[in-house]
């Protein structure tokens, strides 16, 4: 059986500046893969290539049996890539409900289900996104990605810059999603929390994948070497 | 508070958005819509026929502005060429009536068509032509953004303007008269009150349609496209498709207004296609509050009222109007409706 997501020898550049020098990774259906590495090592760039926000220079990205090749990003999204981008990227002028309904696609995720996962969103259903706290906005963006009923949920720094309490709430939701079999590609700084979700890790260094393994095998020694922690 | 009495009326308005209690915006909208109706009826009762015509003009310009509001207010596209659709709608009415009244066929193949003086047919034709023009212009213009989009829509508008001026068959620069106002089943359209009532009903229908559209998934995607196109792509929606669809609907609505305007004046001229008119439509929305459902009505009403009142005082009324516009832009960014109804509209 082929993997849900398969990236081979991906290279990419921002103009003249090359950012990826050959990234390969694999993610099976139902699996959670943590993409790790220090700042500027190419995590977000890799995600931008997978979601087709950034054109790859070379390499291959296959998702659910489709070659993402030169697909425009909205078509990649329709194949089942649900992105929660870095930073809080809600549609600020729309209400919580409108944000979610704008993204809705047929499937098991509905407004009520998202509201169940994040009860705070239900309370604020008719509030404009811009009036929400940072954590609530992040929940909204996760909910919006879920409303597209993605086969793969991509979380890029979903808990960055949030208060510890809110962070816990979001991690609990991510664990719940994992438990119900949602495939997840996740980037985050918290190794401790990642270890509770991720089945496997891929570490990037200077635009290359340099280590693959389970969180248990990522010893403090290795973590210090690759991640500086 | 007096607005309380209007709550039942507000419920029957198309903008009855809030499920529980009508919001202040709903009340302001109801006051505007019913206010225009009351003004028209009141003027008629007092024998001020000219005022009825003025109210009709406000309603028609508000329809045109509503078309622009769909792309500008909801979609964030600054079209500086909406006079093109207004004028095309006007010429559609003029040309169809011209052939019908002169008994000269408009075309003989594939079937004989001698034009028509039936408003429903004219409206439909005008909307189709407006939609087609908007589809062609939009498909090309939407490849650009920002100031380039403004300029390219203006350029298309000017192209059509100069075409109309240099085409002698339908009057060229002199325009084209419609000798008898086109008809609507069951109404005497030459009666100013009948025509006013008809136009008011069309305005309410258009605003109701836009309110429904804005709350649909399409409308939400359109507003999301205004805020961030890339985020919209991330949820699997192509912003270009959403914006072009809105542009086409917008063109059709503005063309409908143009057809009504031609019948109001019983005359079509290239001035309906001029960039001044495109600018006026933009001014209506800025005055009323871009993206507010009833902004075009508030803006057009204020504009026509000031033109009438200040125009009587000074030939240079636009100087004072300019001061007002400046004040709105500087101190009341939400326009008249934002000022009255409160609440932030733009994120």
From TrEMBL, chain A:
GO BP terms, alphabetized: L-amino acid transport
Organism for this UniProt entry: Limimaricola pyoseonensis
Entry keyword set: Amino-acid transport, ATP-binding, Nucleotide-binding, Transport
Family annotation (InterPro entries): AAA+_ATPase, ABC_transporter-like_ATP-bd, ABC_transporter-like_CS, BCAA_Transport_ATP-bd_LivF, P-loop_NTPase
Matches recorded under SMART domains: AAA
Keyword Membrane in annotation: no
GO molecular function: ATP binding; ATP hydrolysis activity; branched-chain amino acid transmembrane transporter activity
Family named by the database record: Belongs to the ABC transporter superfamily.
PANTHER family for this protein: ABC TRANSPORTER ATP-BINDING PROTEIN, HIGH-AFFINITY BRANCHED-CHAIN AMINO ACID TRANSPORT ATP-BINDING PROTEIN LIVF
Protein name according to UniProt: Amino acid/amide ABC transporter ATP-binding protein 2, HAAT family
ABC transporter domain residues: 5-227
UniProtKB/TrEMBL annotation, chain B:
Location of this chain's protein in the cell: Cell membrane
Residues that span the membrane, as ranges: 25-46, 58-77, 84-101, 121-140, 147-170, 193-214, 235-261, 281-306, 318-341
Domain of life: Bacteria
Main subcellular localisation: membrane
Protein's UniProt keywords contain Glycoprotein: no
Membrane association type: Multi-pass membrane protein
Keyword Transmembrane helix included in the entry's annotation: yes
GO cellular component: plasma membrane
Alphabetical keyword list: Cell membrane, Membrane, Transmembrane, Transmembrane helix
GO MF entries: branched-chain amino acid transmembrane transporter activity
Protein name: Amino acid/amide ABC transporter membrane protein 2, HAAT family
Species name: Limimaricola pyoseonensis
